[in-house]
Amino acid sequence: MIDLDSLSWLLLALGALIVGLSKTALPGAATLAVAIFAATMPARESTAALLILLLVGDLFAVWMYRHDVDWATLRRLVPAVLVGLLVGVVFLGLSSDAVVRRVIGGILLALLAFTLWRRRSRTDATELGRTAAYGYGWLGGFTTMVANAGGPVMSMYLLAMRLPVKAFLGTTAYFFFAVNLAKLPFQVGLGLLTLEVLTIAAVLVPLVVVAAFAGRWLATRISQRMFDRLVLVLTAVGAVNLLV
C-alpha cells in the first residue's frame, strides 16, 4: 500500500500543476514533477502515476496546438525513438531507482552543455543531419521510458531546430502524446500501473487541466528569447534534481 500524508498530497498536487504547465507553456518543467513524484511515492510506481497525468496534459496540448506542428521533424525522430523505448524497457526492468535517476541526470547535463556550445558556435541541428535526429530521438525514447524525463531531451533538439514557440509546443505535444500512449502497455506489463496508482492519479487530474489552460495563456505572452532561456534553465534544474 502507498501511504500518503497531507504533505505528500501537497507535493503531488504541486507536481500535477507543473505537469499541466509543462505541456502547454514550459517544456522541460515536467522533469521537476518527476523528482517530486519520485520523492513522494515509491520511485517505480511514481512513473506510472505520472504517466497518467502526462497523458491528460498531452490531450489538452494536442487540442490547443493542433495547427502548430512540424510534421517533418516528427517523422525524422520516429525510428530512433522506438529503439530508445525498447532499450528503456529492458533498462527499467534491470536497474534500481537510484541508477535510473543518475543516468538520466547525467545524460541531460551532457546534452545541455552540448546545446549551449552549439548555440554559441551558431550551428543548429539541421546542419548535423540525420545523426542528430537519431541521437536525440534514441535518448528521448530511452529517457521517457525509464523516468518520464524525455521532455528536456526533446527540448534540446527542438531548440536546436530553432522552432517558433507555438510550433515547438505543438510538435512536442504530438510527439509525447504518441510516445506516452505507447508506454502504457509496458507500465502494465511491469506491474507498475495498479488500481491504487490510478486512483492517486485520478485525484490529481483536475489540477493538470487547470494548469494546462493557465499555460496556454502564458505561452501567448512569452517572447521567443525568454522561452528559450526558460527551457534551458528548467532542463538544468531537472537534471540536477535527478542527480541529487
Automatic annotation (TrEMBL):
Q: Where in the cell is it found?
A: Cell membrane
What does the UniProt keyword field contain? Answer: Cell membrane, Membrane, Transmembrane, Transmembrane helix, Transport
Report the GO terms under cellular component. plasma membrane
What Pfam families does the annotation carry? Answer: TauE
Its topology with respect to the membrane?
Answer: Multi-pass membrane protein
- Give the primary localization class: membrane
TM regions (residue ranges): 48-65, 77-94, 100-117, 188-214
Q: Which superkingdom? A: Bacteria
Q: Which InterPro entries match?
A: TM_pro_TauE-like, TSUP
Q: Which family does it belong to?
A: Belongs to the 4-toluene sulfonate uptake permease (TSUP) (TC 2.A.102) family.
Put simply, this protein is called Probable membrane transporter protein
Q: Which organism is it from?
A: Nesterenkonia xinjiangensis
